[in-house]
Amino acid sequence: MKRSIARKLLVVLVALLVADQIVQHTLLRDGLFFGRWVVPFDPPLFTSLQKKRVADIASIVAGRAEPRLDSAFDAELGWCPVPDSSVDAYSFDWSGSRLCERPLAATKDPQRKRVVTLGCSFVLGVEVAARDSWPFLVGEALGYEIATPADVRQLLGLKGVAAVGF
User: Measured by CB atoms within 10 angstroms of the end CB, which terminus of the chain is less buried, N or C?
Assistant: First the structure.
C-alpha cells in the first residue's frame, strides 16, 4: 500500500516537472506571459538595458566586439566608474560620482556636509534616474552632498586620494 502511494506521488511529481518545463520553454520562452513579465525568470532580464548588456557580452565572447572600458579597477575601492564619462543612462563627474543635478565641487565647502554611501548597484541606483537613487534622496532630505571618493579615502584612512569614482 505504501509503495503504491509512493509510486503515484512520484508519477504526479514527474508529470508536474514535465509540465513546468513545457510551459517554461514554450509559453514563457521570452519571460512574458500575455505581455507581462513573469518573475522570477531564468535569466532574470527585465529591462532593455539588461538585454543589451547580455547581447554585448555575447558579442565580446564571440570575438565580434571589444570590451567596453566603462569601469576602472582601483586596488583599494574595487571596480569604479571612469571619471568624466557616460555609460548608457549614467553620467559621472570629475570624481567618478554619479551626476544628479551638477558635478560636485572639487573642494568641499566647509559649511556643507557630505554623506557617504558605499555599496553595489543598488547604491549606484542602477535602472533608476539619478534623482531617484536613494543616496541622492538621503542627501536631499538631510541637506548634504554625496561624498567624493577622495572623501571616502580620507575617512577610511586609505593611502591614495586620487579622484577615482565608486
Answer: N
Give the N- to C-terminal CA distance of the chain in Å, as an integer: 64
- Does residue 161 have a pLDDT over 70? no
Q: In whole angstroms, what is the distance from residue 104 CA to residue 147 CA?
A: 8
**pLDDT band for position 164 (cuts 50, 70, 90):** very low
**pTM, two decimal places:** 0.51
Question: What does the CA dihedral 53, 57, 59, 60 come to, rounded to 10 degrees?
Answer: 140
Using one digit for the tens of pLDDT, what is the confidence trace for 88-109? 778 888 877 787 777 777 777 7
Strand ranges (E), the chain: 32-33, 36-37, 71-74, 78-81, 85-87, 90-92, 114-115, 145-146
Q: Is 39 helix (H, G, I), strand (E, B) or coil?
A: coil
Question: Dihedral (C-alpha) 156, 157, 159, 165: value to the nearest 10 degrees?
Answer: 30
State how far the Cα of 128 lies from the Cα of 5, in Å rounded to an integer. 52
How many residues are there in the chain? Answer: 166
- Helix or strand run (H / E) with residue 22: helix 2-25
**Residue 115: strand pairing partners:** 146
Nearest to 152 by CA among 51, 74, 84: 74
In sequence order, the β-bridge partners of residue 73 are 79
